[in-house]
Amino acid sequence: MKISRKVGLILAAVAIVSVLVVAYIMYSGQAAERNDLNGRLDRTQTLLPGLTSQKNALQAQLANAQSSLDASRTQFPESVESIEYGECLFAIAADSNVGITKITASPLAGTKIGSVTYYASKFVVSISGTTENMLKFIDIVRSGKDLEVPWSADVTAVNMDVGGSATINLTIYGYKD
Predict the structure, then answer these.
(1) 60-70 pLDDT per residue, tens
(2) Bridge partners for 122 per DSSP
(3) Strands 109-113 and 116-128, sheet pairing
């Protein structure tokens, strides 16, 4: 079967038109995608200066906060240690079967001798319990056997009531290298 010249030309024209339609569809899809990407790029470039200035402001805030934190740390380096002393006293009270009804502490005061700084904090501890258990608490604090190293304690006064309570004045010493 022989195809006539006209049919051949028509088939060639249909093939060319088909190729052109497919190329146009692909091009228009890519053009739409390119327009979308250009729009997103424009929006991003518009936001960039604002975000950059916001980043710089946040970095400045971070630097100020870090500086403030460092300054606070130098002002109150021993406050946590007073809490640790208190926690230790509560642990001794639990081991001695007495209850701590009140505890007050003075700020730590430091004295430097050579390269070592010694700290002392005065505590007033009110406890309640049996006389035997209160004496056990006082003995443990006085001997320092349950205090964490490098702490030691000096019991300066004890006032015991007949009703099962006592007030103990003590000084806890510690050091830092």
Answers:
(1) 999 988 887 77
(2) 171
(3) antiparallel
